[in-house]
Structure formats: structure tokens, C-alpha cells
Amino acid sequence: MRSIELIEVGPRDGLQNEPRLLSTVDKIELIECCVSAGLRRIEAASFVRPEKVPQLADAEEVMASVPRVQGVSYAGLVLNRKGLYRALAAGVDEVNVVVAATEEFSRRNLAVGVEDALRAWTEIAAEAASTGVRTTVTIAAAFGCPYSGDVSAEEVIGIARRVAEARPDEISLADTIGVGTPDQVRRLTDAVRAVAPGVPLRGHFHNTRNTGYANALAALDCGVSTLDVTVGGIGGCPYTPSPQGNVATEDMLYALDRMGVRTGVDINAVIDISAWLSERLGREVPALLGRAGTFPPTT
Q1: How much is the mean pLDDT over the chain?
Q2: What are the residue boundaries of the Pyruvate carboxyltransferase domain, all occurrences included (predicted)?
């Protein structure tokens, strides 16, 4: 039986665009519930300028109280060495560094050009390696850019080749605005694997145009064994019109469970977390499984 790793990014990527601010206590409870449900890699915080992402301004406070359970790894988003130092001081186990596939997305979203982002990644990689902290590079807008339109595979391959030089533990291909299709996922995954041999690949898919789940399954068919998910399917890039959220943890689990793919995550526990989260956010989350129920029905 095949097994894959799900990375819960709801506490960071999922919450960052929510208009209702969650309390620090609620964020810690969300993370505690995810750990109890069996999720073992959780993106818990963002170490960027607090005024840029008010929802995540309490990164240090959250990290100070997350449950330290053997086998559970907490990640923080960092964009530069200053963010890395904050993340290390807060006790993260891994860092996620973003490099955009296009110049315009990089400047508008990361406030630096692609070359500067690549330089920052190289510096972060060296510092993180000396501390034993795991590193992931996410290539954002790898399947399309809200400003530049289509992104060629050659552009993404070029970025992947350069980030691989600093020996990341993982490269994540992100459909940041939810425009990719399964055939594109297959081509890009194979191409990046060829220029970054031996580096594990990870998939990050938004469901903006209802292709997120098909893209995630296509990535699995190509040998990607790690997928980002968000409880309730919350999230979505603020730079795309009408973002609809990331692939939902529970909806993804339903497909994987029915396919006989092991994740170690309790699907019913995740459904309960989503119901709790809906109450805290004051709206119904996008995930469908909480409404439709599992099949065959379980208790």
C-alpha cells in the first residue's frame, strides 16, 4: 500500500487572507487539533513583517505554545535572513522560502526581484544548514501569473535548477492562483525532477478553478509524495480574482482513503476541525466533505 505525506498549511497559508482575525489561543488550538488528527508536518507561522500580514503577526506567541510532540515538525515561512533569525529563535523545525517564477509576481508579492529572492534563498540555505533546520523552496506562480499570464516551463525549470544548487531538502511547485491543469503538472514535475535530481518534490495546489484535486492526483501519479493541504479548504492567493481556497485536507483525504493511499490522518477528526473553524471564522468553509459525509458512512 502506498503512503504519502500531507502538510497542513492552514494555520499559515490558509489563515493569512481571512478577514476575521483569529486569536492566538484559537490558532494554537487549531494546531493542537491538527496534531491530534495525525498531521505531522504543519506550517504554523509566517515570519514576515507583521503589518504586511496582520493575521499572522503573533508568530512568536503561537510557536511558544504549540504542542511539542515527537515526530511533529513545525514550519515557518521566511523570505530573508531577518525572518530566518526570528523563525530559528521561535523554535521552528523547518523553513519554507518562496521564490516566484516571474519578475512581476516577485516584486508585487515579495517586494524584491527574482534575482534578489534567489540570493536570499542561497543565504538562508547556508544559515539553515548550519543549524540543522530543514529547508523547502516553494516556486510560486509556477503554473501561471496573475500579471504576466502563462508561465513557460523553461522559466520554472531555470528557477528550479538555480535553487537546487543550494541543496534544499525539498522543492515545492505551487499553483498559487489555481490555473494549472493535470497535463501541465505532469510535464512540469518531470522537467523539474530532471534538473534537480534527488531533491524530493512537493505539490501546492489552489482550487480556484476547481482543478486543484485533479492536479494533486496528477502529481501523485508522477511520484510526488508530499502535498500541501488546508483544513476546510480555506486560503487562496490575494492577488487573483475571487480566490476559492487551497485543496481541503478532508476532501483530499477522502480521495486518498478510497484509493488505498495511507496518510496516517483521521478523516473524521479533520471534519470536526473544519466545523470548529467555520464557527471561528464566521462562515462556512469551502470543503465539501463536511456537508456530503464520508462513504460508506462512518461514525
Answers
A1: 96
A2: 4-271
Residue 297 counted as domain residue: no
162 touches 128 (CB < 8 A) = no
Residue 241 has pLDDT above 70, yes or no: no
Nearest to 127 by CA among 63, 170, 84, 89: 84
Output the CA angle 117-121-126, nearest 5 degrees: 155
Q: Using CA atoms, how far apart are residues 107 and 129, in angstroms rounded to an integer?
A: 27
Q: List the beta bridge partners of residue 3.
A: 262
- As a whole number of angstroms, the distance between CA 34 and CA 93 comes to 17
Q: Is 145 a catalytic residue?
A: no
Q: Is position 299 within any domain?
A: no
Q: How many CB atoms lie within 10 A of CB 260?
A: 8
Any domain includes 103: yes
Domain tally, the chain = 1
**Residue among 246, 235, 80, 93 nearest 170 (CA):** 93
The closest of 127, 72, 125, 67 to 96, measured between CA atoms, is 125
Task: pLDDT band for 58, please (50, 70, 90 cuts).
Answer: very high
pTM for this model (two decimals) = 0.96
> Of 117, 120, 166, 168, nearest to 141 (Cα)?
117
Instruction: Show the cell assigned to 6.
Output: 500531507
Structure confidence by residue, pLDDT tens digits, 257-276: 999 999 999 999 999 999 99
**Which CATH number characterizes residue 135's domain?**
3.20.20.70
Mean pLDDT of 3-18: 96
Domain range enclosing 61: 5-292
Give the three cell numbers for residue 26.
484559537
Do the domain assignments include residue 231?
A: yes
Give the whole-angstrom CA distance, residue 222 versus residue 279.
Answer: 37
100 in Cβ contact with 141 (< 8 Å):
yes
**Grid coordinates of 287:** 470543503
**With 90 as the cut, is the pLDDT of residue 150 above it?**
yes
3-state secondary structure of 61: helix
